Structures are given as structure tokens and as C-alpha cells.
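Exam revision sheet. Question 4 asks you to relate a sequence to its structure. Input first:
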Amino acid sequence: MTTQDTRPPWPYPRWIAHRGAGKLAPENTLAAFRSGASQGYRMFECDVKLSLDGVPFLLHDDTLVRTTNAREQFGAGLNAVAGEHRWSALSRLDAGSWHSRAFAGEPLASFDNIARFCLSNGYFLNIEIKPTAGLERQTGEVVADHAAQLWAHASVPPLLSSFDPPALAGARARQPQLPRALLLDALWSGWLETALTLECVALVCNHALWDASTVAQARSAGLRTLSYTVNDESAAQRLIDLGTDGLITDRVDLFAPARQPPVN
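Answer key, C-alpha cells:
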């Protein structure tokens, strides 16, 4: 006999494009979102941190070196920590050439612009709060405030997630109505209790952490189950068979959301 799922309905698609479009375009840029959308994706994951002057923008790494031309733009004395530069300087960087010539000149994306793109097209968003060290709670507060304002009239809000409990605590304190998810790369002591204390609605785990036991624990606690980063068909099928709710993938060219089963 199957136990009835009493959790609230889940409003998000199962398939989520990682950093906009995985590997097809420069990650966390508007070009990546457009590329992912062209593959049929309706939900995207991205990383958001704060500039020195408090502007939320998209970047995964702590530093600018891997995905921008900051070294050339700022010179030999480069301070590569992204959060230690003002948005006026960050917005002039080339965040596309590292990927390929086709994207040369693609700028870093402000969170506000990405939000408007998603809202205008009816797309869903998973915002990973990615704070500069020491700014965990402040980043959670600012990102949550921006999200609440931008999605004020939307029927489905963005999902806020983070590896940093203080960032989620900041988001919860400022905008408790926005759904939150705890990101996990390992099942450290107290992981489930922390998610519940933060009043999360979901856990987003390294996909290898999900098995029948961990899915059952999450489900019994009323939490949804999402996975990163799912890039091969056998891993995806295992997670679907386990009944998980979301798969974040780089392989937007491999998994066609329209051909995948919906979330229950």
C-alpha cells in the first residue's frame, strides 16, 4: 500500500537548467538563460552575490578570474574577489570570451535583469545565495528583499537556496514568505534539523546523497527533494525512480523537459 503524499503541491518543473544553460553558453549570463530557454527549459538555477556597493549580480566563484577578463581589465594589481568591486566596474567586464568567441563581450548579469527576463517569459528561478565570505547573512537579506520586490505580483515566487545557513536565516528574517532550500554536499550532523529550523521547503543535495532512506527522511519531514548536478541518463532515471522532485543539469542538450515525466 502506497503512503499518500500530504506535502503541499510543488509549483516548479522537475528539470532545471544549471547556471542558465549548463555548458552551452557562458554560465550565469543572460545569454545562458536564452540558450537554456531555446532547449525548452522553463526553470533555471543561478548564483547570486553582492558587489561592494550592494548590487546583487550573478557569479558562481568567489573570484573573477575564471569567467571574466578581470585580469586584463583591472591590470596586474588585480584584487580578484568579486565582492570587493563596485557594480560600475563589474558591469564593464567581458564574461563571455572565456567560453567561446561567439559570446565575446557578454556582460555579467545583474540579478534584476535576470529576474525581469524570467518574469517576462513566465520562467521559474532557483536562486542560490552565494555570499562573499563574511557577508553571509547580509547577502541573504539583500537577495531576499530584491526577490520579494521583483516577484511581488507573480503567482509563483523564486526558490532561494544556499549552502550557508546564515544566508538562509537572513532571507527568512527579511522575507519569510519566500520558499527556501538548504543545499548539501554532505550529510553533516544535524542537516535535517537545520533545514527544519530554517523552515525550508526543500533540500537540494549532491545527487549521490539521495537513496531510499534519505528521500524517505526528507519526505517524512515534509520536504521536497532536488538534486545537482545530474548529467547522465542513468543518474537521472535513478532519481526519478526514487520519486525526487527536481533535477538540476548542465546537459540541457540531452534532457528535453517536454519529454520528461512531471512532478507529482
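Marking note for examiners. Strands lie at 15-17, 43-50, 56-58, 124-129, 159-162, 180-184, 202-206, 224-228, 246-249.
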